[in-house]
Prior knowledge:
Blueprint: E1 8-12, H1 16-28, E2 33-37, H2 64-67, E3 79-81, H3 104-107, H4 123-135, E4 142-143, E5 146-154, E6 164-173, E7 178-186, E8 188-191, E9 198-199, H5 207-213, E10 218-220, E11 235-238, H6 242-251, E12 259-262, E13 278-281, E14 284-287, E15 293-295, E16 300-301, E17 306-309, E18 313-314, E19 330-331, E20 336-337, E21 340-341, E22 345-346, E23 352-354, H7 363-378, H8 388-404, H9 418-430, H10 447-455, E24 470-472, E25 481-483
Parallel strand pairs: 1-2, 1-8, 2-4, 8-23, 10-17, 11-12, 11-17, 12-13
Antiparallel strand pairs: 3-7, 5-6, 6-7, 9-18, 14-15, 15-16, 19-20, 21-22, 24-25
Helix pairs in contact: 1-4, 1-7, 7-9
The structure holds flavin-adenine dinucleotide and NADP nicotinamide-adenine-dinucleotide phosphate (NAP).
Amino acid sequence: xxxxxxxxxxxxxxxxxxxxxxxxxxxxxxxxRIRVFERRETPGGTWIYDPGPKELPFVxxxxxxxxxxxxxxxxxxxxxxxxxxxxxxxxxxIYDDLTTNVxxxxxxxxxxxxxxxxxxxxWVPQQYISNYFSSHRTDSLLSLSTTVxxxxxxxxxxxxxxxxxxxxxxxxxxxxxxxxxxxxxxxAVILANGHYSVPIVxxxxxxxxxxxxxxGRVSHSKTYRNPEPYRNKxxxxxxxxxxxxxxxxxxxxxxxxxxxxxRRSRSRWDGPTPPEGVEWKPVIKEFRPNGDVVFGDxxxxxxxxxxxxxxxxxPSFPFWNAKANGGPIYDYxxxxxxxxxxxxxxxxxxxxxxxxxxxxxTFRSFEYQAIALARFFAGRNALPLPPREAQQxxxxxxxxxxxxxxxxxHDIPWDDGETMDWLRLLFETAxxxxxxxxxxxxxxxxxETRWAIExxxxxxxxxxxxxxxxRRTEDDGDESWTFLxxxxxxDSLHFI
Length: 496
Ligand SMILES: Cc1cc2nc3c(=O)[nH]c(=O)nc-3n(C[C@H](O)[C@H](O)[C@H](O)COP(=O)(O)OP(=O)(O)OC[C@H]3O[C@@H](n4cnc5c(N)ncnc54)[C@H](O)[C@@H]3O)c2cc1C
Ligand SMILES: NC(=O)c1ccc[n+]([C@@H]2O[C@H](COP(=O)([O-])OP(=O)(O)OC[C@H]3O[C@@H](n4cnc5c(N)ncnc54)[C@H](OP(=O)(O)O)[C@@H]3O)[C@@H](O)[C@H]2O)c1
C-alpha cells in the first residue's frame, strides 16, 4: 500500500522554534494546511515580557508531570466552558534588564538579521519573532490564545496508509470570558513548545515546611523582575548559571551585602574569589524551622529575608496523551525525550517532529531542524533517515556517551565540534531546495559567525589561566577543586 503524502501540519508553539518551522514548511509550498497553535496572545515565546510576577506553585523535588498535569477534556466537542483557572506556567521569566547572551549574528535566523547587536534588550528578540512571522507571511497561519490540550495518535484506518494526529484545542475568549474547545486532525505535528516554562527546585531537607512557615521567602528566578523588592534584604541566590549570575550581580549594591550565592559547581565565569559584594556558599543541606539555612560545609545563615532558586527548568508535555500514543514522550528520571533520532525525528512516529530541545545555539539550530523536518515531510530530503534499528542504536549510544561524560542527553557542546557535526547532519539530510524555488536553503555557519560565537562574550571566561576549567567533584561543601577530563569541563556555550 502506498503511504499518502503529508498534506496538513500542526505546529505547537509560536516562539523562535515555531517561527522557524512555519517558515520552513510554508516554503515547501506543498502542504494544503499549516496551522500554528500558540497559547499566548502574541508570538515571541520565552521573549514575551510579563511585568507582573505571579507566585508560582512549586514543590521541591517535583517534576513537570506532578505540577503541570493535563486539563480535564470535556466529554463532547466542540464545547464552551467556564475558563480554566489551572496554572499552566505560560508566563515567561524575562526580567526588566535582561539582554541576550549570544551575539546577534549567531543568534538570529539566517535570512533576517537582528536590527543591531551584539547583545540586545529582551524586546528585540520578541519583536524579531513576531516580525519573522509577518515577513514570511506565516502570520496568517497563527491561531493565538489557543492551547493544545491533547495530542493523540489516530491509528491508520484500513487502506488509509498512515497514522494521523488529533489535537484538542482550547481558546480563551476574553470578550465572553469563556473557554472554547474543539478538535482538529492533522497528518503531521511539529512540537515547538519550548522548555523554559516549568521551574525546577531541588528537594532539600526542610524546604517544604520552610516555605509554609515563611510564605513568600523562597522564590524561583522565573518570578524575578528587578532587584527593588530585595533592597536592604539579606538574600541567598542558588545557582550560578545565566540566571544565578545575572540576578546575583543585579542585587549587589541594592540588597544587604554580601549577597550569598550557593554554587554546586564552578562556572567558567568564576575566578578564584567571588566578585566584590558576593560571598560564595556550597549547596544548601537543610532548611530549619527556626529560619536558619544550613550549607554542605556545616556553616549556617540566620535571619534570611529571601532565597531565590535559579536552578532552571524542565520540559513539560501535559498535552501528550501517553495512553493513545503508546507511552510517555519524556523520561524525567534520565532527563531526555524518549525515542528521538538526532533530537529532531521520532523513531516510532514518522509524522512527528520536534524543534528546539537541545541546549545549543538557539534560533540558528532551530532553523536547521525545521528545514530538515519540512523537507522530510515534503518527501524531498536529500538523504534518507537511517532504518529504525539504526535510529535506536543512535539513541542507545548517546545515552552511553552522556552518562560517561556526565552531561544531559540534549546538551550539545560547541567546543568539541559536536554542534557542527549535528548541524551538518541536519544540513545534509535536508539538502538543497528545488530549482523552481520551493523550500528553504539550510544556511551556512560561516567563519564570521563561528568567530563571533567564540570571541564575542557577554560573560567573559575566567578559566584557570591555562584555558582549562575546573569542576567540583563533591556537592558536600568540600572546597577542593579538581581538574577533570574532557567532557567534565563546562562547554563554552554551556549556559545557553
Ligand atoms: C530567561 C531566559 C533568557 C534567555 N536568553 C537567551 C539568550 O540570550 N539567547 C539565546 O539564544 N537564548 C536564550 N534563551 C533561550 C530561549 O528559550 C531561546 O532563545 C528560544 O527563545 C526558545 O524558543 P522556543 O520557540 O524553542 O521556545 P519558547 O520561546 O519557549 O516558545 C514555545 C512557545 O510554545 C507555546 N506553547 C507551549 N505549550 C503550548 C501548548 N500546549 N499549546 C500552545 N502553545 C504552547 C508557549 O506559549 C511558547 O510561546 C533564554 C531563555 C530564558 C528562559
Ligand atoms: N540572556 C540572558 O542573559 C539570560 C539570563 C538568564 C537565563 N538565561 C537563559 O535561561 C535558560 C535557563 O538558565 P538558568 O540559569 O535559569 O538555568 P540553568 O542554566 O539550567 O542553570 C541551573 C543552575 O542551577 C544550579 N543548580 C541546580 N541544582 C542546584 C542545587 N541543588 N544547588 C545549587 N545549585 C544548583 C546549576 O548548577 P550546575 O551548573 O552545577 O548544574 C546551574 O548553575 C538558559 O537558556 C539561559 O541561557 C539567559
